[in-house]
């Protein structure tokens, strides 16, 4: 979960009028300037041809993002201004900006990165909701790469409910499964493509988190919107999970059109010393 963000800068809104807004972007980083129409719209298969890479092939839109003829699926959201942030209606502001630019006479273009550590596809470190773990130095740089990389199950959560104890039990996840990506109603509702945070998203309730801790071997928990925990249990569910310093939470995954089943998951956070969170790149390999 990210701290509430009160940014009201709408530099770029993907749907539906991004062309109109492209000019308003003005000095925006060139990487933000051209979200092509052909990468937006529902159910667009962006996969297969990385030959269309470059500005025209920018992979911003909803849809499956495949490489290598479908062998690799990217389940990371592009970090872009305008994506939802964790507060009702909140959006993320500019993320990278040109600090030096050739257009302004510099010999090179040099971008600068500035963002909260809990926006976009990211990982929570134990210290995010646990002061003892934070004080003990359990930052993102201490996360176990062995947990972040290995066989993972992608499951569909029943759509009529948050992830309660009952919902968890109904999933019948076998003992021994250590990494699970939970796809929910959030994906069906296309929440990640809506403007502004929607706090009616689905996530774990406190009893759902407790059930997972008590009854499964799951050490990596992934979910498809801003927070692993439902809004009403934003703190309590995080507290239950992160009390266990060996459980890793990955939030904001892009799970559209990916078939359920078993994959090799690879997730690599940045080595941000002292941070309770980090952007992360996650891919699935078939
Ligand atoms: C380039 O120069 C203009 C005019 O001084 C300024 O407004 C703009 O922010 C500069 N951009 C970069 C990337 O340096
Ligand atoms: C440098 O940035 C400018 C925008 O200021 C862009 O037009 C140009 O293509 C960039 N050059 C390179 C080499 O990326
Ligand atoms: C999940 O819980 C949130 C509040 O935390 C609520 O707004 C939402 O309607 C619930 N969703 C479902 C499907 O029960």
UniProtKB/TrEMBL annotation:
The keyword rRNA processing does not apply. InterPro entries: KFase/CYL, KFase_sf. It comes from the Eukaryota. The keyword Flavoprotein does not apply. GO terms for molecular function: arylformamidase activity. Its main location: secreted. Coiled coil: none annotated. SUPFAM superfamilies: Putative cyclase. Keywords: Extracellular matrix, Secreted, Signal, Stress response. Residues 1-22 form the signal peptide. GO terms for biological process: L-tryptophan catabolic process to kynurenine. It is found in: Secreted, Extracellular space, Extracellular matrix. Belongs to the Cyclase 1 superfamily. This is Cyclase. It comes from Triticum aestivum (Wheat).
């Amino acid at each position: 979960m990210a701290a509430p963000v009160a940014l009201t800068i709408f530099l770029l809104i993907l749907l539906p009028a991004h062309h109109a807004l492209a000019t308003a972007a003005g000095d925006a980083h060139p990487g933000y300037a051209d979200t092509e129409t052909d990468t937006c719209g529902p159910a667009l298969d962006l996969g297969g041809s990385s030959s269309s890479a470059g500005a025209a092939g920018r992979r911003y839109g909803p849809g499956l993002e495949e490489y290598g003829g479908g062998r690799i699926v990217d389940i990371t959201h592009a970090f872009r201004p305008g994506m939802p942030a964790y507060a009702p209606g909140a959006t993320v502001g500019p993320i990278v900006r040109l600090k030096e630019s050739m257009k302004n006479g510099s010999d090179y273009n040099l971008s600068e990165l500035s963002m909260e550590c809990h926006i976009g596809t990211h990982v929570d470190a134990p210290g995010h909701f646990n002061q003892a773990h934070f004080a003990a130095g359990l930052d993102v740089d201490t996360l176990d790469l062995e947990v972040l990389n290995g066989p993972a199950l992608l499951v569909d959560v029943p759509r009529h409910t948050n992830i309660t104890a009952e919902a968890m039990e109904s999933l019948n996840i076998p003992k021994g499964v250590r990494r699970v990506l939970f796809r929910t109603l959030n994906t069906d509702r296309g929440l990640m493509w809506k403007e502004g945070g929607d706090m009616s998203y689905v996530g774990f309730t406190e009893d759902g988190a407790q059930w997972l801790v008590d009854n499964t071997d799951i050490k990596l928990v992934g979910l498809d919107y801003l927070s692993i925990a439902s809004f009403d249990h934003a703190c309590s569910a995080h507290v239950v999970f992160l009390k266990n310093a060996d459980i890793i939470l990955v939030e904001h995954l892009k799970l559209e059109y990916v078939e359920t089943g078993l994959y090799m998951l690879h997730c690599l956070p940045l080595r941000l010393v002292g941070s309770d969170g980090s952007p992360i790149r996650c891919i699935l390999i078939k």
